[in-house]
Amino acid sequence: MLIDEDKIKSLISAGSDITGAASGSAIGFLIGGPVGAALGGLSGVIICRSLSEIAGRLLSHRETVRVGATATYAITKIKSRLDSGDKLRNDGFFKEQEEGRSDAEEIFEGVLLKAKNEHEEKKTRIIGNIFANTAFNSAISVGQANHALRIAESLTYRQMCLLSLITVTEGIEFSDDDYGTRKKIPYETMSLLQEMYELYNGLGLITPKDSKVMLIRGWRGMSPKKFDLTPIGERYYQLMGIEEGIPDEDIKDIARHFQLD
Fold first, then answer.
1. How far apart are CA 257 and CA 261, in angstroms?
2. Domain residue spans in the chain?
3. 17, 31, 138, 197 - which has most CB atoms within 10 Å?
């Protein structure tokens, strides 16, 4: 497939509605010179080819914005890691297979398609991070990356904030974290506790800190202070780059709903 640089520039530029000036930096890094050169040849060509292909599809304005933003976040994350001295994986992830495209192209297409359909646009950075981080870690299989994409799609942005909140509870003052004994709880808090319960019971991303707790049957047993990430929760938390992808103000906004009088 021919690479259309103008379509790529237009697609990434559209993402500036979300990413601001970062879109211009991504364009300069990706195709400022020979296509893919800055990203090390084949890896850059794969990204450009995928972007050129999806840019040729019929997308609504907001779909174009989301795809462009996600591509920007992925490209700028890759640039940041390369600038820090990290090396792209060399285990065949970027190599075309006998039956066609490479594993990298499969994952990057999945990232762009998830972004296209994602109405919570704050998740675009997280989705882009999945490809960028997979590109550097040969321990992340294609299956794991696809599963992480599926998990990211199923999570609400607030659930991502909850995962982040769970990792930083030591620095947050909670007025009361025993919600199970309360007769009246604000609906916003109740909703967040239910979302947290889904992280525990449905997705297996969090687990009680107290090993004696065998089973929690509902949202009243949930509290950010009483949970840790599970091993798979920790792995996907890192792969999604949630720690850097969630602004502090969003975490604080979630935390205040657990600070009940």
1. 10
2. 5-154, 157-258
3. 31
